[in-house]
């Protein structure tokens, strides 16, 4: 499944470029601009800010950034504030007694 060997068209043409459809895990990404995240999950390197980063370190960096973001939202109780803000939007008028 990772090698995609069951693909009938091994190389296709798209927008005047040849695209390799078989063995995507051995293909290095070819970015079109500075921040191009068009890399498959099993590619050996990821491209960001004109630099190629090993997939292991890129994925670990993404996991750590998500962990820090979620820890900060829990520490500053941001999720509760967002939920309270959304509840005020759906029921803006106070209840009459």
Overall 3D geometry?
Answer: elongated
Detail the poorly predicted runs. Answer: none
Average pLDDT for all residues: 84
The amount of beta strand, in percent, is 15-25%
Count of the domains: 1
How far apart the termini lie comes to 63 Å
User: Structural class of the secondary elements?
Assistant: alpha+beta
Spatial strand order of the main sheet: 1-2
Task: Outline the fold blueprint.
Layout: E1 11-14, E2 17-20, E3 45-48, E4 51-54, H1 55-75, H2 78-90
Antiparallel strand pairs: 1-2, 3-4
Q: In words, what does this structure look like?
A:
The protein is of the alpha+beta class and 97 residues long. It has one domain (11-90). The protein is built from 2 helices and 4 strands, in the order ββββαα. The chain has helices at 55-75, 78-90, and strands at residues 11-14, 17-20, 45-48, 51-54. The strands form 2 sheets. The chain has a two-stranded antiparallel sheet with strand order 1-2. It has a two-stranded antiparallel sheet with strand order 3-4. The protein is elongated and about 70 Å long. The model has no long low-confidence stretch (mean pLDDT 84).
């Amino acid at each position: 499944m990772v090698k995609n060997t069951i693909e009938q068209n091994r190389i296709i043409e798209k927008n005047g470029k040849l695209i390799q459809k078989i063995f995507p895990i051995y293909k290095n990404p070819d970015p079109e601009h500075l921040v191009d995240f068009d890399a498959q999950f099993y590619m050996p390197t990821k491209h960001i800010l004109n630099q190629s980063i090993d997939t292991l370190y890129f994925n670990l960096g993404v996991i750590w950034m998500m962990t820090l973001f979620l820890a900060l939202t829990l520490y500053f109780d941001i999720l509760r504030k967002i939920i309270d803000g959304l509840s005020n939007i759906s029921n803006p008028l106070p209840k009459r007694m």
